Amino acid sequence: MSATRKITESALLIALAIVFQSLRYISPAIMGNLAGVFVIGSLVNLVIFVAIGRVGFGAAALISIITPLVAVFEGHLPNILLAPAVIIGNLIIAFVWWLLNLKLKLVSQTISVIIASVLKFLFLWWAVPWTFTMFLYGSWSGKGTAEKVLATLTANMSWPQLVTALIGGLLAVVVLRVLPKKQ
After folding, report:
1. Domain of 22?
2. CA atoms of 38 and 165, how far apart (whole Å)
3. Distance CA 178, CA 181 (A)
């Protein structure tokens, strides 16, 4: 793949991930907050996986870094200090899938998706509540506010992360088979 094509595909995938993330502005009106989490999360994970398959780990890493920062800017993540945990979670699925499936070719694409998704889920399930408790808990004013934010973060960063990573990854396996071969 030529450098120009690689840059172009990377830029398109980054733009697509940001567009998918911005669906949260219309998703509550159309499908409700919970469905929006699953649809948007699955689509962003889909783009990360497709970026690995089409352009390589570098593009997926950029998307993994940019999307949580956009989520902070859009107000989806309540504080920038939570972004590093989400970035690392995204990098986990990107790296593990790249390593197991493309680099070492140890297991099938589907098994790689499952392993990467479980590792991302486990990391986020631990890291986001820990980060909030260690650095942000005392900064939320009002009685019960910190507990509510922590409960919401813990709920959003637990099993929904596993589901959205699995859906996005499995859809990517199908999409990568349908897309024309890299040139």
Report:
1. 3-178
2. 9
3. 9
